[in-house]
């Protein structure tokens, strides 16, 4: 192949060719080729201004080079792409739901459907039909025709008016006909398996479906088998009983969490009087600082927070929560941030800071700020 130009983009070199055998990333929604140009690896391929740009792992000079394309990757891309044609056609067959876009990633692919929500049962039926087409091992036929002949085919989507000259139609034998320039298998049996792994509502009125096929489906299945084996050992139960076992654990966990919450509230109520009696005083304020369990701390605000002459500070994950009826907490936190390099904010009566500074230091700095605010007296 002929490299016409090489330019640098940050820490990468990009080789430009007018006629490249490498398929660009993103074209038709699919992944691009990988391989080598000379002794340099191709990391990404994209099309720009009518030419193909190859992102390389090192520098080369313009000129003529031997190249190598990763055919194993190309075959796997073909499996994913043909799987998408089959799944999109199956969704029309099952529920007259159209695919509006397709994206192929390195680990899974997605299609966006022009309906939301889509019932789980509909997706299951479409998945089942898709795999029946795979198991039928139907031919995948390429038709290269003139644009004017495209009307003779029962296309899933009509060919765009912008297309001129020859058109490539991919036929899944007696099932689907679509204009497409991407990679495809020659027989549906090469796909192996099509598996939907998730779906969600996106952009208001669309449903995004996540799926895998080919070796990706094999890897996904192997990962799940290993996961179930590990869970079975951890839970000392069979895979058939696992759903019930996990359900029981979750229910028990909820009950324990509820009990812990009630105990935390009772404990906070019990210690609140001692905390008030032993609180440090500064500028006619009692400063209550609690560094114990956060579950207990959150209830101290309930029992102490309404005291007019109290400033309360509770240790929470990543920092501290501060509250007071008398002190402008938002203003106090802003001053603390400048003083100790913390981050955070709050309203008039309550706020939070993020810092790893020890509690005794925070209390000391709060005292200093209170004294400063009161004109220099701790009384």
Structure characteristics:
6-stranded mixed sheet; Elongation Factor Tu (Ef-tu), domain 3; 379 residues; Diaminopimelate Epimerase, Chain A, domain 1; Threonyl-tRNA Synthetase, Chain A, domain 2; alpha+beta; 7 helices; elongated
Q: Point out poorly predicted stretches.
A: none
How many separate structural domains? 3
Query: Mean pLDDT, nearest integer?
Result: 93
Adjacency order of strands in the biggest sheet? 2-3-6-5-4-8
Give a count of the beta strands, DSSP E runs of length 2 or more: 21
- Protein structure class: alpha+beta
What's the structural blueprint in terms of helices and strands?
Blueprint: E1 2-3, E2 5-9, E3 12-17, E4 35-37, E5 40-48, E6 51-56, E7 63-64, E8 67-69, H1 71-95, E9 99-104, E10 109-113, H2 120-135, E11 140-146, E12 166-172, E13 176-179, E14 194-202, E15 206-213, H3 214-235, H4 242-277, E16 280-282, E17 285-290, H5 294-304, E18 310-316, E19 319-324, H6 329-340, E20 343-346, E21 350-354, H7 359-373
Parallel strand pairs: 17-18
Antiparallel strand pairs: 1-7, 2-3, 3-6, 4-5, 4-8, 5-6, 9-10, 10-15, 11-12, 12-13, 14-15, 16-17, 18-19, 19-21, 20-21
Helix pairs in contact: 1-2, 4-5, 6-7
Question: How would you characterize the overall build of this protein?
Answer:
A hairpin with a 2-residue loop joins strand 18 (310-316) and strand 19 (319-324). 27% of the residues are buried. 36% of the residues lie in helices and 30% in strands. It has a six-stranded antiparallel β-sheet, with no helix packed on it. Strands 16-17-18-19-21-20 form a six-stranded mixed β-sheet, sandwiched between helices. It has three domains: 2-69, Elongation Factor Tu (Ef-tu), domain 3; 74-230, Threonyl-trna Synthetase, Chain A, domain 2 (Threonyl-tRNA Synthetase, Chain A, domain 2), CATH 3.30.980.10; 267-373, Diaminopimelate Epimerase, Chain A, domain 1 (Roll). The N and C termini lie far apart (85 Å). It is an alpha+beta fold and 379 residues long. The model has no long low-confidence stretch (mean pLDDT 93).
């Amino acid at each position: 192949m002929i490299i016409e130009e090489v330019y640098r983009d940050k820490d990468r070199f990009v080789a430009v060719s007018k006629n490249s055998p490498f398929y660009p990333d993103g074209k038709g929604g699919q992944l691009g080729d990988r391989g080598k140009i000379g002794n340099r690896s191709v990391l990404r391929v994209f099309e720009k201004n009518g030419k193909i740009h190859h992102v390389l792992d090192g520098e080369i000079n313009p000129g003529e080079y031997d190249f190598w394309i990763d055919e194993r990757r190309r075959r796997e891309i073909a499996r994913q792409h043909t799987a998408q044609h089959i799944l999109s056609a199956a969704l029309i067959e099952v529920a007259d739901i159209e695919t509006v876009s397709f994206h192929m990633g390195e680990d899974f692919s997605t299609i966006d459907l022009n309906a939301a929500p889509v019932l789980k049962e509909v997706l299951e039926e479409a998945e089942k039909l898709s795999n029946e087409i795979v198991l039928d091992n139907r031919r995948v036929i390429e038709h290269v025709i003139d644009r004017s002949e495209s009307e003779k085919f029962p296309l899933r989507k009509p060919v765009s008016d912008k297309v001129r000259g020859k058109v490539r139609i991919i036929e899944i034998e007696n099932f689907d006909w679509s204009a497409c320039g991407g990679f495809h298998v020659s027989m549906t049996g090469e796909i192996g398996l099509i598996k939907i792994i998730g779906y969600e509502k996106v952009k208001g009125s669309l449903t995004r479906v996540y799926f895998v096929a080919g070796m990706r489906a094999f890897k996904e299945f192997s990962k799940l088998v290993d996961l179930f084996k590990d869970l079975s050992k951890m839970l000392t139960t069979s895979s058939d009983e696992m759903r019930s076992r996990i359900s029981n654990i979750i229910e028990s966990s909820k009950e324990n969490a509820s009990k812990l919450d009630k105990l935390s509230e009772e404990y906070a109520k019990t210690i609140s009087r001692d905390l008030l009696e032993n609180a440090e005083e500064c500028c006619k304020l009692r400063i209550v600082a609690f560094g114990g369990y956060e579950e207990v701390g959150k209830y101290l605000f309930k029992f102490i927070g309404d005291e007019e002459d109290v400033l309360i500070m509770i240790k929470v994950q990543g920092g501290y929560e501060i509250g007071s009826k008398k002190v402008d907490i938002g203003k106090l936190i802003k001053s603390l941030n400048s003083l100790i390099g913390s981050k955070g904010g709050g309203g008039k009566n309550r706020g939070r800071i993020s810092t790893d500074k020890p509690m005794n230091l925070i209390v000391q700095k709060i005292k200093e700020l209170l004294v400063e605010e009161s004109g220099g007296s701790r009384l």
